[in-house]
Amino acid sequence: MLIIFIITITTTTTTTTTTTTTTTTTTTTTTTAATTTTTTTTTTTTTTTTTTTTTTTTTIYNNNKNNNNNSNSNNNSVGGDGGSGGR
User: Which residues neighbour 39 within 8 Å (Cβ) at sequence distance 6 or greater?
Assistant: First the structure.
């Protein structure tokens, strides 16, 4: 009898990383009698998303063969007296 087992295991892992960077812009103007001062600050927002997917597949192959060829080995014995003759 031949028995074959094939087992396939698939594992998928997904990792998502999000990074956000924010810079702010502010403009301020100050005026006095003799001087005008303007201050400017810039805002920038950057978002980065990284997704990594890893798939691992493992296949297990097992061939189990039950060998019954030895079942007849004890049936072919040679010798013995053939039984007692009796009276």
Answer: 26, 27, 28, 29, 30
